[in-house]
Design brief:
Length: 238
Amino acid sequence: MANIVSRVTAVAHRGDPYRFRENTLPSIRSAVEQGADAVEIDVRVTRDGVPVLLHDATLERLWGHDRRLERIDHAELKELTGGGVPTLREALLAAGARRVMVDLPGSTDASVRTIVGTVRECGAGERAYYTSGTAAMLRVRAADPSAEIALTWTTLAPPRPELLAAVRPRWLNYRFGLVSRELTDRAHRDGLLVSAWTVDTKRTMRRLIERGVDSITTNRIDALHRLRGPRTGTDPER
């Protein structure tokens, strides 16, 4: 069990949101300090084409402004949030050498091209991988034929072979309640890795590890890191 636990990749969901506001530089830095192997971030694009970190379509929940990001220039965004919403470039820098799992809510062809291009310009192509549903991941595949993809899948029925051939994911990314030993075994037989989200109790973390997942995304990266214990050697998921 200890060796299996040590191999599970620990992904910090939007950074370390129980300590700092999600998708901010302090949250990312805290996740790294707490032992994350990778940091999951949500990336959208402002009206003037700047990729920034924000899960929601508007600033209402986190920043108190009922304004849609897609209708705001980056300069205005900085003013409205006191500079609290980082750019993708800043986030990649804050994550250091850690992997970055880039979620793409509200994606369009243009936004994905901009985001993928920024990742490459920052020299982060080898440590970034992308996650979201089918439409967004097809956009990623079109923008970067070599991109690493974690296809978010929300049903027990496996993706069709034609879809897998088009997206070419390395991972299937499941809501944790869907994951069984049968599911992970099937994915592994198909040459795919399994990630599970979003897991915040040690009991559920242990159960998923017993079921063979390769990665766990959590809001409690400190708890997963303690459960997993020290890692040795290189990351098998790189």
